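USER:
I would value a second opinion on how I read folds in token form. Give me a protein, with the fold worked out from its sequence. Write it directly below this note and I will take it from there.

ASSISTANT:
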Amino acid sequence: MNNLKVQLKKEALRLCKDLEYVHKVHFTVAERQRRLNTCLGISSIILSAIAGSLALSRLVPNFEVFAGISGFSAATLTALLIFLKPTENHERYLRYGRRYFALKEDIRRFCEIEFLADKPESEFKAQLDTFISQKKELDLKSPLLPIRAYRKAKKQVELEKARHEIKVKEAKGKRLSVFEKYLTLWVMVCIGAGIGLGKMAPGVAVKLDALSVYQVSIPIAVCLFFMMYPIMVKIDFTKVLSAAKTPKPVALTLIINWAIKPFTMFLIAWFFLGYLFKDFLPGTEILKNGQEVELWRSYISGAILLGIAPCTAMVLMWSYLAKGNDGLTLIMVAINSLTMLVLYAPLGGFLLGVNAMPIPWQTILFSVAIYVALPLVTGYFTRKWVIKYKGLEWFNEKFLHWLTPVSIVALLATLVLLFSFKGEIIMKNPLTILWISIPLFIQTIFIFGLGYFVLSRFLKLSYHDAAPTAMIGASNHFEVAIATATMLFGLSSGATLATVVGVLIEVPVMLMLVSICKRTRGLFKECSLELPQCDTTQMIQSEAEIQ
């Protein structure tokens, strides 16, 4: 293929790419006009019906005023429908979008098929001139396009291409294991199995739960160790030092966990449990100190204990599943664990409104040692020794391949044990659990959205830093919360039940947030990890090119 033919093909491909954006813009604007027509039309009908009902019934005080306002609003919306003509505009944009799409397909076939034919260059040039003339004619006749719609359509095209590339790479690469592919299903099955075990064989659950040190369950501690150990082995500790040089994620997680999260948890729990659902939570209870309190206050206390205990164990699993920065996650976990030793008691005492709050220091220290320190040290030396005696290639291809399912299996075993311990409580209080779970769910989503979509983007964090930063704020250290509620208020108290509800909803909700992170990774401008999403973020986030 000579130089002129190559240049002609390049020009045709450029024209095809331009038409791809233009036809998308027309379809985007057409859809917007359709929604506008639907919104104005339905609103006008509803307001007209309200005005007519008020005029006929005369049951509402000052019905003439309300009927007049509703009638005037309906007339205004009808006038907007007539003046803006959204239905007509929808048809116009849709019609020209289809014409641009048809022209794009003609040019695509021209590039992929006709250029293979042995024809004179003059014929290719004449055909290209025809396509250019057709596009100019469409440009003159088509309606004006808003620049925001063009930017949105271009971003949508780039995003679709990026997702396609990811799917191709994932199809060529290693497939997910059965546990990873159907993790949500396995989690739900294990939660059900745990609750069933606690109901059918409460004696077994009680004996296992009795195996504890400083209110920390030994069986759960063993499972959590094997859940964390493979994650720690995969951490390249040479990158931990470089992660420590990025103070913005660490500062952000401290602000969210200690300056925002405890107070929003208190406000949300008080609004729902102390106001909105108060009538559905009647009754009182006697605490360990002999004081009688309303049950809804006890539930709020349990929610507070969850809100002031940031996760320092499971978040390593959530960050791992979200393909986050494991080294940075480890640093944030360590700093939050130390901060919890200082701020947990003052914040709890302030929000619970008591003069002195007994804090399980042994529980905090022991859980941090079991969930973080022991897997960290073991993982560090395992990685060092395996690479030294077997080599990095064997470590990545053989050892990690065998070790990866261990974390998932340990997570599932943890869920079975955890919910078997509290299965009887959950089965006895289904509606109460529903009312408690609503504010806890809203709090988790709010804190995650604030940290991930708002503050992380404001600080221009990369994806692999933003994901664990938001995860550590959204999740809770339920072991510490349950232990504190048990020591303060008793095992059968409403506060303890609220902390158990936190465990019940946390795993499914956090898995949902992990999925949201993976699907929205294109919102962040940087991703330096060697992962599929890192190949697409620069392309998706090219705002300068879009403008």
Residues 41 and 211 are 65 Å apart (CA to CA). The radius of gyration is 30 Å. The longest strand covers residues 284-286. Confidence is low (pLDDT under 50) at residues 166-176, 354-359, 528-547.
